[in-house]
């Protein structure tokens, strides 16, 4: 028997004259992210597609207007999205050492009604998914963060966050690869380099990879 087909509903939104956005859903969900990555990979094989970039649960598609139209490509995307993605290969697993002594650790613990060591312990429990890479070179959006640690971004962002800072916001976590402004809560730091300018691609993490944090002493 052929494999069952997906019931994923796709919304198509035009983005100017030569691009569109395919929306598979709105949740922070590893299954939706897997489908988005698979759909982007399938679209990249088409001659009428110039670029396909997966997001959390979306794919931004840039196309050749001499070969297709919004309507034709949108219909093709809906057909592709009904196909069950190929068996997913586990992304590379990265083990990241973290010193949990960030400047926001105490305030995060207080806001959540936890001890600082409990914040660190909960943060190290999951194996996180790299949903996408962006914002600054090497930055990866990781999740889902355990609900016990979910909290909004800082009311006042910092003008400069040190490279290597491990942070949380909402249901996500991440590591600042470069010294940049930022509004996430800083709970720790790591010495692992995420932006590798001499590598191709220059990011340690790639969409679909897995990340496991573990605590270390200073």
By secondary-structure content and strand pairing, the structural class works out as alpha+beta
Rounded mean pLDDT score? 90
The CATH topology of the largest domain comes to Cyclophilin
Number of strands: 13
List the topology elements.
Layout (H helix, E strand, L loop, with lengths): L10 E4 L4 E5 L6 H14 L5 E6 L3 E6 L6 H12 L11 E6 L6 H8 L3 H8 L4 E6 L6 E4 L14 E4 L3 E5 L2 E4 L4 E3 L2 E5 L20 E6 L3
Parallel strand pairs: 5-13
Antiparallel strand pairs: 1-2, 2-4, 3-4, 6-7, 6-13, 8-11, 9-10, 9-12
Short note summarizing the structure:
The protein is of the alpha+beta class.
Could you walk me through the main structural features you see in this protein, from its secondary elements to its overall organization?
This protein has 218 residues and is an alpha+beta fold. The protein has two domains: 11-81, Gyrase A, domain 2 (2-Layer Sandwich), CATH 3.30.1360.40; 93-215, Cyclophilin. It is built from four helices and 13 strands. It has helices at residues 30-43, 70-81, 105-112, 116-123; strands at residues 11-14, 19-23, 49-54, 58-63, 93-98, 128-133, 140-143, 158-161, 165-169, 172-175, 180-182, 185-189, 210-215. It has a four-stranded antiparallel sheet with strand order 1-2-4-3, covered by helices on one side. It has a four-stranded mixed sheet with strand order 5-13-6-7. Strands 10-9-12 form a three-stranded antiparallel sheet. It is elongated and about 55 Å long. The chain starts with 10 loop residues before the first strand and ends with a strand. Mean pLDDT is 90; it is low at 1-7.
């Amino acid at each position: 028997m052929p494999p069952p087909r997906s019931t994923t509903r796709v919304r198509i939104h035009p983005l100017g004259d030569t691009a569109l956005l395919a929306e598979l859903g709105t949740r922070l969900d590893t299954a939706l992210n897997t489908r988005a990555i698979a759909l982007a990979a399938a679209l990249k094989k088409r001659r009428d597609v110039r670029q396909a970039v997966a997001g959390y649960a979306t794919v931004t598609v840039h196309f050749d207007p001499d070969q297709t139209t919004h309507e034709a490509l949108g219909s093709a995307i809906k057909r592709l999205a009904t196909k069950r993605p190929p068996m997913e290969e586990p992304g590379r697993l990265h083990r990241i050492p973290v010193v949990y002594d960030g400047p926001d650790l105490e305030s995060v613990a207080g806001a959540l009604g936890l001890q600082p060591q409990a914040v660190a312990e909960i943060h190290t429990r999951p194996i996180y998914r790299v949903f996408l890479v962006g914002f600054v070179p090497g930055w990866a959006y990781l999740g889902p963060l355990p609900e016990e640690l979910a909290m909004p971004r800082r009311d006042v962002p910092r003008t400069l966050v040190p490279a290597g800072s491990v942070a949380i916001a909402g249901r996500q976590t991440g590591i600042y690869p470069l010294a940049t402004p930022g509004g996430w809560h800083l709970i720790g730091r790591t010495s692992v380099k995420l932006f590798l300018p001499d590598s191709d691609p220059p990011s340690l993490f790639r969409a679909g990879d897995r990340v496991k944090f573990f605590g270390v002493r200073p």
